[in-house]
Fold this protein.
Amino acid sequence: LLQRSLAFLIPQTTIEDFPRLGEWCEATKRAVTSFQEYHALPGDRGTVDERFWTRLAEEVKKREVKENMKRQLREEGLKKSQQAREQKKMDQNAASQKEFEALMGRSTIGLLQKKAAE
């Protein structure tokens, strides 16, 4: 959980940086230190305490909310663009139908006039 949370929060850290998840290693210590320094947490660098866990949980929640908002906005944008495409297609179909009816009307009138002239 610690390593996954740090990889989620620290841009230059990925889950692949940790050789074995769940085990304390040098990469974990570096990531913990980076988090502590970024958030100006007091205490020994590279070790975790109650303040560290509290701040880590807060930051993970904030990031999750932010990511969810981005996802929702992206989904809304996709939905709006899909609706716009569908509306454009319907408008094009309606215009094509009108053109077809106009052409058929002229053709019919032309045939009727030709037949009447005979």
